[in-house]
Amino acid sequence: MKAFLRKLAVCFTAGSIIFVTLSSANAALPFFSTKKDEVPSLAPMIERVSPAVVSISVEGTQVSRQQVPEMFKRFFGAPNEQVNERTFRGMGSGVIIDAKKGYVVTNNHVVENADEIIVKLTDGREFVAKKLGADEQSDVALLQIEADDLSQVSIANSNELRVGDFTVAIGNPFGLGQTVTSGIVSALGRSGLNIGGFEDFIQTDAAINRGNSGGALVNLNGELIGMNTAIFGPNGGNVGIGFAIPSNMMKGLIDQIVEFGEVRRGLLGIQGGNVDAKLAEAMRSPSNRGAFINEVVPESAADKAGLKSGDIITSINGNDLSSFDELRAKVATMGAGAKVKLTIVREGKKQDVDVVLGDAGKPVTEAKDLHPAFEGSVLSNGQDETGNDGVVVSEVQARSPAARIGLKSDDVIVGLNRQRVNNVADLRRLVEESEGNVMALNVKRGTSTIYVVIRQ
User: Secretion signal: which residues (predicted)?
Assistant: First the structure.
């Protein structure tokens, strides 16, 4: 009996007592203490992780455009549209994922349209952050600060999460300062919430409120399992239903931003819907969940891999799928060219199919985040007329900084200060490394090669 009691630890929670059996697998968890008479606590883990969670404050200007009625233009000579500007301030949270490089991940909606981003550490230091890239549809953004003695959080494999796993949320709700709450994983693969373009959320009952966006959701080992993003509540407050972007999804997007300067979204090339019990019975599928394929786009990645209409995709890379939306989100955030293994049910039999994802299109980069001189232009990876890689200028607004330095639509930037530019990531790196007050862009304009000079 004494041996049995020694294997039990008692954790007191609000209004309840949880008995936890200790084993070799969980004896090292941070809230269990081996010291006599010490109360079990999450404090050791929080003390280790919290310096990697930051507060973010932003300032910016929102521009709204309104068409002017025709009679005002005719009688008063008014312009075609009226432009209104409104300044705004906001707050959120972020997580340091690379201390050496100063990388901070947060939600795109926290820093969107911000002219100034200030990152505040738990030790009180403040730094102006640069936005390296963002993905609006997945609501992920990557910032960078220049600072010494930073802490970073380790990233866990969110595919290993189970409903019931303990969670701890760390963030800056309502601008109060760093706050810690706890709960469990309530559900996985949540989608259809109309929060973003690609949804594959972790649901948790750890209290999440306004200002927690971009903060950390960690496990009891202090590893990042998700990034807090949204709440479900009738009055905008916590009701025990919060959502976080899984760490694997976040990491896949951030890795693409670091490597390419943008998100290269993967494409499978199918249309379909969710599987229910009746459809599963009709298609002789052993599982009532998954993604049903209605149509395979010709010459797509799915077509080349041999997928067919009527197939049911039940897992991706060994991880079970709950819905078509979950498949869509996972594929889109893996990136073009990624190799994935799909498990499908065809005519009642399971089989594995290897697929190399296609490219969903050429995403664009917020040009002003590269350098103020590019503001007003739209940049994306592409090629010039001879097939050489470069940065394509697909749009230049009249009277913008980009127009003033001489950039034009359809220009292709192929060099900066006599160094080759193959993509947006190259351009960003060379701009950051540029010394002096002048930068010379090597631009292909049709069949001509010209230089565009930027004076800082």
Answer: 1-27
Task: List binding-site positions for substrate.
Answer: 59, 109, 139, 211-213, 268-272
CATH number at residue 169: 2.40.10.120
Q: Can you give the length of the chain in residues?
A: 456
Q: Is 139 a catalytic residue?
A: yes
* pLDDT, tens digit (0-9, with 9 covering 90-100), for 42-88: 999 999 999 999 999 999 887 665 665 655 545 555 465 566 778 88
Pairwise CA distance, residues 234 & 397, whole Å: 41
When pLDDT is cut at 50, 70 and 90, the band that residue 304 belongs to is: very high
Is there a domain that residue 313 lies in?
yes
Q: According to the model, what pLDDT value does residue 163 have? A: 95
The answer as to whether 180 is a domain residue is yes
Domain encompassing residue 278: 266-359
The answer to whether position 47 is within a domain reads no
Number of domains observed in the structure of the chain: 4
Residues contributing to the annotated binding site: 59, 109, 139, 211-213, 268-272
Question: What are the pLDDT digits (tens) for 391-414?
Answer: 888 788 888 888 889 999 889 999
Catalytic: which of 139, 311, 325, 384? 139
Sole residue written with tokens 């919290």: 50
Annotation marks residue 37 as catalytic: no
The amino acid at residue 306 is G
Active site residue 213: yes
Spell out the residues 6+ positions from residue 328 whose beta carbon is closer than 8 angstroms to its own: 198
Catalytic residue among 109, 158, 182, 247: 109
Q: What is the pTM of this model?
A: 0.69
Q: What integer is the mean pLDDT of 446-451?
A: 87
SS3 of residue 146 by DSSP? coil
Asked if residue 378 and residue 259 are part of one domain, the reply reads no
Question: Given 50, 158, 213, 377, which residue is catalytic?
Answer: 213
